[in-house]
Structure formats: C-alpha cells, structure tokens
Amino acid sequence: MEDFWAVVLAGLKVWVYLIVALLMVPAMFGFSLGISETYMKILIKTLEWATLRIQTVNTEQQILKSPSFNGLIQREEGSMEKELGELRRSRPKSPLGGDFSLSDCFYFYRRGVEDIVEDEVTQRFSSEELVWWNLLTRTNYDFHYISLKLTMVWVLGVFVRYCILAPLRIMLASIGLTWLVIGTTIVGFLPEWRLKSWLSEWVHVMCYRICARGLSATIHYHNKENRPRKGGICVANHTSPIDVVILCNDGCYAMVGQSHGGLMGVLQRAMAKACPHIWFERADMKDRHLVAKRLRDHVNDKTKLPILIFPEGTCINNTSVMMFKKGSFEIGATIYPVAIKYDPQFGDAFWNSAKYNMVSYLLRMMTSWAIVCDVWYLPAMHQQEGEDAVQFANRVKSAIAHQGGLLDLCWDGGLKRAKVKDTFKEQQQKMYSNMLVRGEEESSHNSDKLPPP
Amino acid sequence: MGSRASTLLREEEIEEIKKETGFSHSQITRLYSRFTSLDKGENGTLSREDFQRIPELAINPLGDRIINAFFPEGEDQVNFRGFMRTLAHFRPIEDNEKNKDPTASEPLNSRTNKLLFAFRLYDLDRDDKISRDELLQVLRMMVGLNMFVSQVLRMMVGLNMFVSQVLRMMVGVNISDEQLGSIADRTIQEADQNGDNSISFNEFIKVLEKVDVEQKMSIRFLH
To answer: Which end of chain A, N or C, is more open, meaning fewer C-beta atoms within 10 Å of its C-beta?
Structure first.
C-alpha cells in the first residue's frame, strides 16, 4: 500500500516538473517549444478526417445536408417604398386620392412572418451553428449515427479532453491566477521606480500567458505596428471574458469595470496595486459624468496604460458586431480598434450568460479542443470635425466588422435582456404615414384646385 | 446549444406536418429548431411574449396582429403544429403540385387561403366582415401618431403667414381620427358592393384581384 502511494507521489512530482519545464517556463519567457503546434496539427488532421467521413456517409445515404447554412429563407431586400409601390401598381389611381390600399398590409405581414422564421438579432445571442460537426457533443444539432470509427474517435476525444486536458488546464489556470495575485502584490510594495512599471507589465503578461496555455489558446496577432499606445483607448468586439486574456497576452492594458467582491475582488485589488486600473463601485457606474471624468483623467496621464473597453457592453456570438455605446467615444482620446475573431471549429468561445454561469463556462472552455483566434490591430482613429460620438462609434464599428469578417449590425446588444425601444416602431409608422400623406396632399390639391405651396 | 432538436420531433409527426403544410423534411426540422430557440420556457409551446422578444417583429407596426394570427381563438399558447400551419400560408404556390388530388382540401398556401389569412388580420371579431371600425384600427396601427402636413397647409392658405407659423408650432400635428376616418370611408366605398357598409370576404377578393398575392404573401423558403 505504501509503495503504491510512493509511486503515485513520485509520478506527481515528475508530472509537476514536466509542466513547469514544458509549459510554464516557455510561457513566462514567451518562447514556444512546439508542443501546442504539434497538438494543433494532429487535431486539424483528425477533424478533416471526421468531416470527410461524415460527408461520404451522407452522400451514401443520400442525406442531403446543404453546406450553406446561410439561412432558412431568402428575403426580398426591398425598401418599404419600393414594395408598397409594387403592391399599389395594380390598382388604378383613384381620382379621390387617398393612397391607401387594402393590400398595403401585405408588406408588413410578410416582413413580420419572415422575422418570425429568421431574424437578425436573436441568433446573435446563442452560439453559432457549425457547418460540419467538430466532434464535440455540444455542437451536435442533428445527430445521426454515422459510423463506428467516428464514434470511437469521438469517445477517444471525450477521454482526452475531460481526463487529460481539462485537469491540466485547470491547474495551469489556477497557477496563472495565483501568480498574478502574488506577483502584482509584491510589485505593489515597490516604490515608484521606473522599474516598477516594467516589472508590473512583465508579471501581468507572464500570468496571462500561463492562463492562455491553460486554455490551449493559439492566437495570431496581425499588424502589430498598430498596437495600442499609452494614453489611448483600445476598443474591441466582445465575445467572452476570455477576450481579456487574448488581448493581454500581447500587451498591457488598464481594465475598466465594476469592482466585485470575493475572488474577483481579490484579483482586482491585487492588479490595481501594481498598476492603475479603473474599477468602479456599482452605484458610480450609473453616473455617466463620473465615469467619463475618470476615463478622461486616466487617458490624459500619458504614463498610464491604454484603457481596454468593450463598447458593445455585452457578449455577442462572434458572427456580428452590435451597436457600440458612445460613452468611450466622447472622451476625445485616440481610439485603437481591435478585431477579434475566434475559429469556431476548435471550440465555441461565446459566453451565453443566460445559459451558463462563469464557472460552467470556464469548464466548457477547458474541455474544448482549443481556442484559436485572430487578432487584428487596426490603425488609430480620431473623432473628426463635425462628427458626433455616435457617428464616430459607428465608423469604428464598421472598421472592426470589416476586418474581422463580421456582420455590422445597428441593433443594441442590450436587446439580449431588454425590450426594444418604441421609437423604432414609431420610425416605421412615420415612414408609412409619409407615403399615405403624400397621396392625401395630392388628393386635397386636386379636389381644392389649389396651387402647390 | 446541443439541443437535439430533430430527435424530439418524431418521424410520424414530421410526415403529418409534411402532408398538411407541404414543407419539406429538412425545412420542418429547421423550423422546429427555430421554434425551440424561441421557446424560452422550454415547454413545447410559444406564448405571445416569446414572439415579442424578436426585435424586428416588435417594431413592426402590425406586429401584434401578426402574432395574434398564430394563436387559435381564445388561447395563449401555440404548439409546433399550429406554428407550422400558420407559416404554411406563406409558402409559395407551386404550379405543379405533385399530388393534385381534386378531392383533397385546398392547400394552405393557395391564393384564396392567403387572402383569407390577410382578411382575418383585419377582421378582429371574426364575423367575416371588415367593418369601418376594424379598418380604422388597422390604419391607426400602421400610422401611429404621426406628423402630417396637409391639414396645416390647408390652414396656411387661408390665414396670413405670421399666424399660420404660430399655428404650425402649436398644432403639434397628428394624423387625426377625422383624416383616417375619411380614408376608411373611401376604402369601404370602393370595395363595398352590396351596400352593407362593410367589406365581406368576397368583396375583399374582388378588390385585390389584380394584386399579385401569390408573390407578395409568399416567403421563399430555402431547401
């Protein structure tokens, strides 16, 4: 019995040394031993093989699975004016005017039912559907039994992910976070030398690198010359809390957010000791002026790190970019846009906060194959003459959407939880009234025989 | 996600829905997926709130009427069959229906049934007649409380510029009930043939006989 435990202990020691040598040291110093690259290559080969198998079996059994998951319906992309014009064309123009026809409602009915079948907004708040299965149960929408080989590979995958990778990753992540707290606290004790900020940056990046290994994250950074500089604001599209880890692997940012209690609070306070972050009390967050003032003060101090902000305000599923809140664009600082695009093939990074809490989300992340993403740094943008904050925000949003290959939507991410404002309905009503009224004007002029104004 | 949607819907049900509505197998499974994603309560039926959660529908002026069309008389929940039956009205009309069975009832997406669907959206009390009030109600929904100019313009011609400018500021314009009322009267006048001051279904069909109902009340479902 004792021998057994001795063996286990020895095994654990070897295991820990391996981890430190092969994973942590490279992470700390930023070089790579090529282990993750090999893992990724094997993974890609496996997934390609799986896809091929599914394809061949599908064609054999003549299950027609259209690879274009583009949509369920094809819409008529006509404006209200155009469509109503077509509907009314069939009617002779009544001499009494009043350009209303019983068929006008068809336009609204059809649009309404199209939106019931498929709308632009609600699909952004749930995970993206994959075209081909990637051997994860969670993305399996239409499960057919394909073949024994495939099922066996899947079982093997489950074993590898849950029994080998997940514990490893959890350990790495905990180590990373613990070091972050300890490291930043230690640095916090140092007096204000220039060394302090350098050390603090090093500690931050190192711990985030360990955390990234804890997620098997493979990140490709593009256009590093546009990296955010001090005294600016970095804005990015938001998909999950992991975005922070992804971005902080390649630079140091000042975070903005609500101060939490508990474990998060410990983390926040420790980080704030080493270098200034902006944490708000819950009540203060509602005070827009206070928020703006603190942001402005931080930005104006050129020695402080660039602020990292996610203007969407909530997590979106990485197929589109939704409305940017204008708060950060009113400050007058340089904006450094960053586009983040995850590859859904290896793991679904989207945090559906309605369905999963933080802990179950992180567990899901750690039992995926990997997190693969691309980060593009876009050239800095400034607010131009005669452009208000909303227009500026939209301009930045389009740039990010364009670079990341995401759809640029004007809808507010807050619609995840809140109802849509009535003003939008009133806009539609107004458009329709204008069409109705023009007919009225013409008719009243005809009947009164008055010259146009 | 991971909702095994297609396994919750039995094959026999899919076949029945196929026969009743004419949708294909894959369309039915995908629409079932959509149905379950709208069903936040996960009880197999949709309530009015589930529909109103769709922002584009919430801002549609006739959104409430459309939602109403899915719910049978006096009920607050609609199941998948009812959902599909209503959507079936919007299937395009194919010229060569494969099983052209003369004894079978008219398909849900025939021209007449599409028009009946539209008629019922006007006819709130289901008495098979569109009265002036019902027409007014729909008009009011489509138009909201909105700016309109001709009332003001008419007044401007009769008064001098100064006073009319003040009036314009004061009037804070609406499409008045009076204005809508005259539109409703005109519409009924045109359509009403038997002089009962309301529009019956046959009169409705007659007014819209030149409108391309097949195309305008159809949605192109893919695969």
So the answer is: N
DSSP H stretches of helix in A34-121? 35-60, 80-89, 104-117
Contact in structure between B104 and B36 (CB atoms under 8 Å):
no
pLDDT reported for residue B198: 82
Taking the model in full, what pTM does it have?
A: 0.77
A230-272: per-residue pLDDT in tens? 888 999 999 988 898 899 888 888 888 777 777 777 878 878 8
User: How large is the ipTM?
Assistant: 0.78
Rg (CA), chain A: 28
Report whether A43 contacts A369 (CB < 8 A): yes
Q: Which long-range contacts (CB under 8 A, 24 or more apart) does B17-22 make?
A: B17/B80, B17/B81, B17/B84, B20/B81, B20/B84, B20/B85, B20/B88, B20/B108, B21/B84, B21/B85, B21/B87, B21/B88, B21/B91, B21/B108, B22/B88, B22/B91, B22/B107, B22/B108, B22/B109
Contact call for residues B54 and B180 (beta carbons, < 8 A): no
Does the beta-carbon distance from B212 to A90 stay under 8 Å? yes
In the structure, what pLDDT confidence band is assigned to residue B145 with cuts at 50, 70 and 90? low
Mutation target among B6, B119, B150 for the A interface, most CBs of A within 10 A: B150
Q: Testing the interface with A: which of B48, B142, B152, B174 to mutate, by most A Cβ within 10 A? A: B142
CA dihedral A391, A392, A397, A398 (to 10 degrees): 70
Q: Look up residue B62 and give its two tokens.
A: 């006739």
